[in-house]
Design a protein that fits this description.
The complex is a heterodimer of chains A (about 350) and B (about 140). By secondary structure, chain A is of the alpha+beta class. Chain A has one domain (about 30-344): T-fold. Chain A is built from 9 helices and 17 strands. Chain A has a 9-stranded mixed β-sheet with strand order 1-2-6-7-10-13-14-15-17, covered by helices on one side. A 3-stranded antiparallel β-sheet of chain A has the order 3-5-4, covered by helices on one side. In chain A, helix 2 (about 55-70) packs antiparallel against helix 7 and helix 4 (about 95-110) packs parallel to helix 8 (about 285-295). Chain A is globular and about 100 Å long. Chain B is α+β, with helices and mostly antiparallel strands and about 140 residues long. Chain B folds into 2 domains: about 15-40; about 45-125, mini-chromosome maintenance (MCM) complex, domain 2 (Sandwich), CATH 2.60.320.10. Helices cover about 25% and strands about 35% of the residues of chain B. Chain B has a 4-stranded antiparallel β-sheet with strand order 2-1-7-6, with no helix packed on it. Chain B has a 3-stranded antiparallel β-sheet with strand order 3-4-5, with no helix packed on it. In chain B, a hairpin with a 2-residue loop joins strand 3 and strand 4 (about 75-80). The chains are: A alpha+beta (about 350), B alpha+beta (about 140). Chains A and B meet through helix 1, strand 1, strand 7, strand 8 and strand 9 of A and helix 2 and strand 8 of B. Strand 8 (about 210-215) of chain A pairs parallel with strand 8 (about 135-140) of chain B, so a sheet runs across the interface.
């Protein structure tokens, strides 16, 4: 036997092994695809794992563009803009679903979430990105246009009250998330996760079988990922947060800070004692609408609403005194470096 | 091992030489490749600059640099300094990206919506993929 050949073979083998070890491919056994898109005035990332990952993600991007064109109140050609212009329109299936969901949240939360808030958002300048404090008189006058109870919905046709205009932006991203989950399912995706401008929705579990770990932004340090308010481990759920830190401005004269989540009743930024509301639900559209509604309602009303709908969602509330309240369904899956209280 | 030593004691010099050369060449090649892999992909943090979803620059946080990105949407100047990244300048209408401060941790990002530009920190090193790492941030 030629021992030199054996030694040589061993050296070649060792070299091969050393090279393999340097570039581990963690996703070698699953196909994955991750793409991003700027749409709905925000930045979105879509990741899917599975044989049809790329096909599914491409379909998702098309669906996002379709819904953006259909629902955006800022796009003159959208269905919603045309409805706002004409005062009445027969709704498409997507808008119909969204309107019915919005109407349900409006009624169940005592008007805390109201799609007729658009004139107020425009008055404050939160619609075009250059906000400023309006006069009390203007706020009072604009408030008279607000009220989803004045909308008439009949046989799929929606008619607005005089001077009214609607914006489905408060639930459109949540709905888009739900549609994406349907596309993932249709394409047999094994696991997936999306962030639609910070609205997170996960499909299945992680490729390794563990739960997705979603970090909840600390309202005091919204840009610092090392200072999170906590984390939620979950699967097949939307995790959506509303916080006053997302969009705000400080009025130079009074020194007061105003954020973009308006209280339809006062016409001013909601001041309910909550600084962040996170909703965890398998229904992304509901989660999106409720995060706003609960932020406006405050702790007490949000908790009592949850008690009568606890099979549909869970939530994490952060108060202005930095107390963290977590509903029972998240016990064991929510963790935080700070103390938190479980609500039952 | 003993066996190898025993065999090595009575070799035919002429026969061994090409083998020794071959083994040495293989080992040296291996070492050089490993060194390259370690330097160029074996970890460290990077600032990936993406324009409309496509990576257009990848800057190591180990080297201080300043890069101006010009697209048809506008101009942004990204600075890497002391292992962190910030948006030094931008001619976008809202200027929000300039106020997003410094980022230095994996997954953190600076987003300029009007210019469809994203700067995101990536980390190739394995020690950062522990079980407790966060998959996504809810905002």
């Amino acid at each position: 036997m030629n021992t030199h050949k054996i030694i040589t073979a061993f050296a070649v083998f060792a070299l091969f092994i050393s090279l393999c070890g340097c570039t581990p491919d963690k996703t070698a056994d699953t196909e994955s695809c991750s793409k991003e898109i700027f749409a709905m005035d925000t930045y979105m990332t879509v990741t899917a794992y599975g044989e049809n990952a790329e096909k599914a993600v491409n379909e998702v991007l098309e669906e996002i563009k379709r819904l953006d064109d259909l629902l955006s109140a800022g796009n003159d050609k959208s269905e919603i803009s045309i409805l706002n212009k004409n005062g009445s329109a027969s709704l498409s299936d997507d808008s119909r679903y969204l309107y019915e969901k919005a109407d349900r949240i409006y009624r169940e939360t005592g008007g805390a979430y109201d799609i007729t808030i658009l004139p107020l958002m425009k008055l404050w300048g939160f619609q075009d990105g250059d906000p400023s404090l309006p006069t009390d008189r203007d706020i009072k006058n604009t408030c008279q246009l607000i009220g989803a109870d004045r909308l008439i919905y009949n046989d799929g046709r929606l008619t607005l009250g005089k001077g009214q205009s609607i914006d489905l932006g408060g639930i459109a991203k949540g709905y888009t998330g739900d549609r994406i989950m349907q596309i993932f399912e249709k394409n047999n995706i094994s696991s997936g996760i999306i962030s639609l401008g910070g609205n997170v929705q996960c499909f299945g579990k992680k490729p390794d079988g563990s739960l997705w770990r979603c970090g909840i932004t600390d309202p005091d340090h919204p840009e610092d990922m090392s200072k999170l308010a906590g984390t939620v481990s979950t699967s097949d759920k939307a995790v959506i947060t509303s916080g006053g830190y997302e969009r705000f401005f400080t009025d130079k004269k009074s020194g007061r800070t105003f954020h973009h989540i308006m209280d339809p009743k006062t016409g001013f930024s909601a001041d309910s004692g909550l600084i962040s509301v996170t909703i965890v639900s398998s229904d992304g559209t509901l989660a999106d609408g409720l995060s706003t509604a609960c932020f406006v309602m405050g702790q007490q009303d949000s908790v009592s609403y949850w008690r009568s709908h606890r099979d549909e969602f869970d939530m994490i509330l952060i108060t202005d005194s930095r107390k963290i309240l977590v509903t029972k369904g998240l016990e064991g899956v929510f963790s935080s470096g700070n103390d938190f209280e479980i609500i039952d | 091992m003993l066996c190898v030593v025993k065999i090595m004691k009575k070799p035919d010099i002429k026969k061994i030489k090409p083998d020794v050369i071959l083994i040495s060449v293989l080992i040296i090649t291996g070492l050089i490749i490993m060194l390259f892999v370690l330097i160029f992909s074996g970890g460290g943090r990077y600032a990936e600059i993406k324009s409309d979803g496509k990576i257009i620059e990848k800057l190591s946080l180990d080297t201080d640099t300043e890069k101006t990105i010009e697209t048809e949407l506008g101009k942004n100047t990204v600075v890497v300094e002391n292992s962190s990244v910030y948006m030094k300048d931008a001619d976008c209408p809202d200027g929000i990206c300039k106020n997003m401060g410094r980022i230095d941790k994996k997954g953190q990002s600076i987003i300029c919506l009007p210019h469809k530009l994203v700067v995101v920190i990536t980390d190739d090193s394995e020690e950062n993929t522990d079980e407790n790492s966060i998959d996504i941030i809810v905002k």
